[in-house]
Design a protein that fits this description.
The structure is a homotetramer of 192-residue chains. Chain A has helices at residues 5-9, 19-22, 40-64, 66-80, 105-113; strands at residues 33-35, 89-91, 130-143, 146-157, 162-173, 179-187. Chain A is α+β, with helices and mostly antiparallel strands. The longest helix of chain A has 25 residues, at 40-64. β3 (130-143) of chain C pairs parallel with β1 (33-35) of chain D.
Chain lengths: 192, 192, 192, 192
């Protein structure tokens, strides 16, 4: 099997409330409720899971090297992004030229961990020794099983340096109740 | 103006929670939440509003005659059904032959209050002196701004006679937060 | 393995267009399109698949007996109904008393093939020798990945006898592009 | 009345296919189709309408001054953005500090035409003499009545200077078939 038990730890961040649990709402419907909608609470949990995953990749890199970090990153992409559905609308913070948009899983993986000759400018964003994350949400738009968020993300590295980005995410709740990122636009603040 | 103040009372049953109020969920998004999804509570309120409206039409008929009842019924159809969007999937309890499905507002109004030569078999279901309603929901399916319910409805007339029907409804929440019936299948219980 | 190759034939009716194929729409997006929406064409295909499945169960029953028919019926329920999500809003044509609504897979299977002591009045609707089906749709309501249909279904048995029912369906397209019945209200026409 | 006939021309760009017209799909449902879903074609039309509106504001500014441009911009915000629903997730290209996100209509208007003391850094993005627009879409994600697009937008001013931005939009189709921008993240390309 490809993933070791340890690398699967990365995945455990991405477990969300199942449909069954949601059904316990108190109403005249009792437990006979199927509800496919996404909630603000699920969205916040998914944001935190993204932050945890980024730090996990950085830690794996520091402790066990880039191969381990790559496996963790790939598990994160498989579980928390929507590449299983097709193109993901992903504009990472630091991409340039013809490779700004990473609509494929390969392109996203290259951005996070580098080492792919097809994406020569990628140095591995998730390998930069991230130790802490913080979110400051501006607003959320919830529409069926899809939620959009916009706000700031603050990432702190081992030296204490904080990177601030303007971040937009689109999360879609899949059939299993798992939230997947189908949209991700990250940009450095405008400096006049 | 077409509606008298009195007939507008019928309409007041159909006021639901606005988007603004929904937005007060406690989360990192504060009050910056737009949520277009329908909830089980809104669906129950819409079911009750349907029951109240049916009784209102019956009362208006008894007190003020069929013209008043017709105006109330039309207001109900305008506010609580989705004919403004196009065809409504409406199979009333007692329709027959080529006129089983009432996909137009005209056909629905004829069913509720009769008196339309194009629908000669309609005697006016809402004019039958209904005084009480009760719901026994079997289940609900919630998907975005649309909710489906299935269960029994019990209607009691002035003589105390109870009519039981198997009832399926589809409610869609519109841009103003108003729930509208886009699907309504009603049938008498199967008698072997 | 539980299903023989032959019983899997029943399943092949339920293969629908994948997201990938849908993506070929001609637009400025090229093939970079993810579209989770359901189409009228997919709904019609799912209706036909339901008709084919019913006839398949009847044929399996005639040729290989009730056990084979049961396995086929269970495969149909697993693939074409939404019991994997929770309660299905299913009101079959001929159910009575406390067992009108079949929100569980067990209840649905009992209705189609009988033989379950918990559902003593079920004689097996799908075992009645159905040979032909015909649909006459009244209208469709399409909302995201969910579509609602209403109309008549005509079923013909081996003696040429035609049974007409008023039928409402709700189809939800799942993550794999498979349409699943989440709502099914069937009733005999009202006879004054 | 507030808007002159001329300023209403700006609005005419934002007229989209109605539900009624959509219903003409060829199927067994005939014209009895209600379909609330958004299409790739509608999204492309809405993108073009945004480009036309930006140029219209610039032209109005040049010809009739900032007051006229403001009225046009306000009409665009009223018709083509979702501020009527509540917060819009809007991160304009050139905003800074505490005023990066413009979740209110007032903040959006200030960005486009300036002149609001509460937003002192806004010089009026739409007043910069834009004469031409071009889109290069990377991908689209369609989910019910909501569509997300990502790609580049190229804007050319009167001197021929081209500004390129990375652009993400979320469009929601409202009850009248009008597409409204509920998400708009615009950022200058990353320069290492």
């Amino acid at each position: 099997m490809f993933f070791s038990k340890r690398s699967l730890l990365a995945i455990s961040f991405f477990t969300f409330t199942s449909f069954a649990l949601q059904a316990k709402a108190q109403s005249s419907f009792g437990d006979q409720v199927v509800n496919t909608n996404i909630t603000a609470q699920e969205v916040e949990a998914a944001q935190k899971a993204w932050g945890e995953a980024l730090i996990k990749i950085s830690k794996d890199h520091k402790k066990d090297g880039v191969k381990k970090a790559s496996r963790t990153a790939e598990a994160v992409l498989d579980q928390a992004y929507g590449y299983n559905m097709g193109a993901v609308l992903f504009k990472p913070t630091l991409t340039t030229g013809d490779q700004v948009f990473r609509t494929t899983k390969e392109g996203a993986l290259a951005y996070f961990v580098g080492g792919n000759k097809k994406f020569p400018n990628d140095s591995g964003f998730a390998l930069k020794g991230w130790e802490k994350y913080e979110f400051k949400n501006a607003a959320v738009f919830i529409n069926g099983d899809l939620a959009l968020t916009m706000g700031n993300v603050f990432l702190t590295d081992g030296s204490g340096k904080v990177t601030k980005v303007d971040k937009t995410w689109g999360f879609k709740k899949d059939d299993k109740g798992q939230l997947r990122i189908v949209l991700h636009h990250s940009s450095l603040p405008y400096a006049p």
